[in-house]
Amino acid sequence: xxxxxxxxxxxxxxxxxxxxxxxxxxxxxxxxxxxxxxxxxxxxxxxxxxxxxxxxxxxxxxxxxxxxxxxxxxxxxxxxxxxxxxxxxxxxx
Length: 93
Fold this sequence. Notes:
By secondary structure, this protein is mostly beta strands. The protein has one helix at 3-6; strands at residues 44-49, 52-57, 59-60, 63-64, 74-78, 83-87. The protein has a domain at 39-93. Helix content is 4%, strand content 28%. Strand 1 and strand 2 (52-57) form a beta hairpin. The radius of gyration is 33 Å and the shape is elongated.
């Protein structure tokens, strides 16, 4: 007699041990969105925009930064009063 044709379905029961205790920390979930700035100090100002808080640099070491937007290739140069965008020209050494 062959079990393949006359014994019916094969049932397998696996023995397992008692489950362990739940640890104090479960799996880590996905990271949430960044929080909004609530305050800044120093050479920054804080405004609230559509996508959250926006920190703007207003100075470098308490010297003001010009509101003029630099163009490609410009650098900030200190003119004795404030940091201004300037086109860099290489000098001779």
